[in-house]
Amino acid sequence: MKKLFILLLSALTLMANAEGEKTKEVFISPGVISIDILHQDEMIKLQRIQDRDNEISNFYLKTTRGKIQPMHPFAPHLVETIGELEMIDYVKQRSTGDDSILVIDTRTPNWPVITGGIPTAINIPYTKFKNKEKAMEIMEDQLGVQVDDIYDFSYAKTLVMYCNGIWCGQTPTAIKALLKYGYPASKIKYYRGGMNAWKSLGLTTADL
User: Fold this and answer.
1) How far is C-alpha 112 from the geometric centre of its chain's CA atoms?
2) Coil, strand, or helix at residue 77?
3) Contact criterion met (CB below 8 Å) for 39 and 29
4) What angle, rounded to 10 degrees, do the helices at 132-141 and 170-180 form?
5) How is residue 39 annotated by DSSP?
6) b/e map 131-158, b = 16+ CB within 10 Å
7) In whole angstroms, what is the distance from residue 108 CA to residue 85 CA?
8) CATH superfamily, domain at 34-200
9) Which residues pair with 152 in a beta bridge?
10) pTM, rounded to two decimals
């Protein structure tokens, strides 16, 4: 009788595990496993890595890099600091053709080669924003700013900017430069978690 009970319990456990495996998807948010995103004319799935044994890449294991960035490093300018779900929402909007939004990876070009970038992003290194002449060219050619005797920001894009994460100063440097040139703080979003947080959640990356 005891052996029969043990066998029955084992069978029920196996059945429970089998059922459990079907519901072990890794979610972005409640009920959302993946989102179709158009990146460089190619449709890709934005999702978290579904392998439950997956771990963060070795590149981001080191804990001694950089300096911790404040949550709101741009005071008195009211630049909004955003998290992953807000970033994903901007990526979705950009993917569906909203040209008023631009997702910018501000890291120097070697970084995106190593880690990949966030889908829909373009790479504009922070060093280009530090140089006023180059920054003016970028603002006029890519950011929707009309540059004449004065800068007209009426049609300036909403910039969603990121770098490596909370220890990385590349995006804060780029944003501070843009604010100095008069770019509206309301049209700049700072994804403080950056690639370190993005990769730690196993979210899809893309070649930029």
Assistant:
1) 12
2) coil
3) no
4) 80
5) E
6) eeeebeebbeeebbbeeeeeeebeebbb
7) 25
8) Rhodanese-like domain (3.40.250.10)
9) 146
10) 0.87
The pairing of beta strand 101-105 with beta strand 122-123: parallel
Task: For the chain, list the strands marked E by DSSP.
Answer: 34-39, 42-47, 80-82, 101-105, 122-123, 146-147, 151-152, 158-162, 188-191
Bridge partners for 171 per DSSP: none
Closest to 103 (Cα-Cα) out of 83, 85, 117, 113: 117
Q: Is the pLDDT of residue 50 over 50?
A: yes
Token representation of residue 137: 């060219």
Instruction: Find how far residue 47's CA is from the centre of its chain.
Output: 12
Cα–Cα distances (Å) from 207 to 40, 115, 121, 170, 189, in that order, read 9, 9, 9, 19, 22
Would you list the domain boundaries of the chain? 34-200
> By percentage, how much of the chain surpasses pLDDT 70?
89
Question: 189 Cβ partners below 8 Å, 6+ apart?
Answer: 79, 80, 81, 82, 86, 90, 158, 159, 160, 161
2 pLDDT more than 90: no
Report the length, in residues, of the chain. 208
Provide the residue type at 73 as one letter. P
